[in-house]
Amino acid sequence: MSDPLHIEQGGHRTWLKWHRGRRKASDPVFTGSRILEAMRLGASVEVDLVIHAGHGCAILHNFSLEEETTGSGLVRETPAAVLRDLHLRGSDGQPIADKVMLLEDLCGLLAQNQPNPDALLQLDFKEDCAALTPEVVANFGATVGPVARSLILSGGDFDAISLLANSAPNLRTGYDPCYGESLARLKATGDFSAFINDALNTAPDAEMIYLAYDIVLEADAAGFDIVAPIHAAGRRIDAWTIRTVDDTTLPKVRRLLALKVDQITTDDPEGLIAALAS
């Protein structure tokens, strides 16, 4: 089997993004070995960032520690040294050998292991602008600066993304409007054109627009091609997240490919590419 990197269809390449550093469904999340593998192969891979007590970021998705790690309490209230001593949990909830990484740990690994030029690591910032202090911003810039060319920073608060990105030259940015007021307006009006135009105007510097895949498909069912204005604006689109590969999700993936999305986020890149090839 070829490595699960991308799919070529109709002259268009759609990347398969390794969601939370997973190559296959059974993988635990956020392990350094899988992330380095992805970067070596030239894959697109994503990790999440949550602020910790030391004015830096942990590679975790949740604001509390219980589900993902052997710790307890809020990440925001936990010192860096304590976080580094916690073990991650596998998909079965049991502790694994891998420990929690901080952003500087991950960037250090990338600095020591030169990524493939095609590789792209998405840092998905899970907090908003109100959470940013000058110390957090300064630490972020110093940490990601040396490896910024291999990274893209994303989130639902583009003010926060811009503030962080300005601390690190050469860092690309992306925007996810599928939260908060933007999503509420879409649900109230059903106006997909206004939704995507607002996203493009809110984040003029974002190279990638991240959309929940069901929004892409709902727009398509309503007769509106939500991909076209993104491409017309010179941006790329990521459709997230295909969590399982089965008879329900495969037709959806095939439609996303036909719509020419540039990237599909999935928890099972290996299973997805095998299923599409069979």
Short description:
With 278 residues, the chain is of the alpha/beta class.
Record the SSE blueprint.
Elements: E1 6-9, E2 12-18, H1 32-41, E3 44-51, E4 57-58, H2 80-84, E5 87-89, E6 95-99, H3 103-112, E7 120-125, H4 134-144, E8 151-155, H5 158-165, E9 172-175, H6 180-189, H7 192-202, E10 208-212, H8 213-221, H9 227-232, E11 236-242, H10 249-258, E12 263-266, H11 269-277
Parallel strand pairs: 2-3, 2-12, 3-7, 7-8, 8-9, 9-10, 10-11, 11-12
Antiparallel strand pairs: 1-2, 3-4, 5-6
Helix pairs in contact: 6-7
GO molecular function, one term: phosphoric diester hydrolase activity
Protein name: Glycerophosphodiester phosphodiesterase
Domain GP-PDE: 37-270
What is the number of strand segments? Answer: 12
Order of helices and strands: EEHEEHEEHEHEHEHHEHHEHEH
Radius of gyration, CA atoms, in whole angstroms: 18 Å
Which architecture per CATH? Alpha-Beta Barrel
Number of helices: 11
Q: In terms of per-residue confidence, which ranges show pLDDT below 50 for 5 or more consecutive residues?
A: none
For this structure, the quaternary state is single chain
Total number of distinct structural domains: 1
Morphology call: globular
Q: How far is the first residue's CA from the last residue's CA?
A: 11 Å
Q: Bin the helical content.
A: 25-40%
Indicate the CATH class. Answer: Alpha Beta
Share in β-strands: 15-25%
What name does CATH use for the topology?
TIM Barrel
